[in-house]
């Protein structure tokens, strides 16, 4: 009997034993590109509030905002209002000088988070994800 419990316990931790954090928010949140761009004008240490919709705002402190390469900027915002969840966002400057954004709102201690996705028409949305599906195993420990 003990062998059965030990062999099944890792599966339990990967299927939702963590609490949810965003269950009261929509599965998909439209996100204006202009709002994403404002993140990159904020300095580290600055408090910022991003109202993505009437249903969802993300407020916190800019932890970092740096140019990684000539065509890539990355920023991280940590929110005490969401149990120190992190909004990590990157701005990619394309060869035609347009921008593409990628990012996530996650906390390894919670089951759910959001991933920023660009839809076919070019706009952006946060789509709810399971954090264990987007955080590599080595970072969950």
Radius of gyration: 17 Å
Distance between the termini: 27 Å
Provide the residue-averaged pLDDT: 85
Order of helices and strands: HEHEEEEEEEH
Note the beta-strand portion.
35-45%
- The computed structural class is alpha+beta
Biggest beta sheet summary: 8 strands, antiparallel
According to DSSP, the number of beta strands is 8
Spans of at least 5 consecutive residues with low confidence:
1-15
Number of helices: 3
Could you describe the 3D structure shown?
The protein is α+β, with helices and mostly antiparallel strands and 141 residues long. The protein has one domain. Helix content is 16%, strand content 43%. It has helices at 2-14, 33-38, 131-134, and strands at residues 28-31, 47-51, 57-69, 72-79, 85-93, 99-106, 112-118, 124-130. Strands 1-8-7-6-5-4-3-2 form an eight-stranded antiparallel beta sheet. A hairpin with a 5-residue loop joins strand 6 and strand 7 (112-118). The chain is globular, with a radius of gyration of 17 Å. The protein starts with a helix and ends in a 7-residue tail after the last helix. Residues 1-15 have low confidence and may be disordered.
């Amino acid at each position: 009997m003990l062998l059965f419990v030990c062999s099944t316990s890792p599966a339990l931790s990967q299927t939702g034993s963590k609490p949810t954090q965003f269950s009261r928010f929509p599965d998909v949140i439209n996100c204006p590109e202009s709002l994403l761009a404002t993140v990159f004008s904020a300095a580290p240490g600055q408090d910022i509030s991003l109202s993505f919709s009437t249903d969802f705002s993300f407020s916190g402190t800019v932890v970092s905002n740096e140019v990684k390469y000539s065509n890539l900027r990355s920023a991280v915002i940590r929110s005490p209002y969401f149990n120190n969840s992190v909004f990590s966002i990157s701005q990619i400057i394309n060869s035609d000088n347009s921008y593409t954004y990628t990012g996530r709102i996650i906390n390894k201690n919670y089951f759910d988070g959001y991933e920023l996705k660009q839809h076919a028409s070019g706009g952006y949305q946060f789509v709810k994800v399971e954090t264990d599906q987007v955080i590599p195993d080595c970072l969950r420990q």
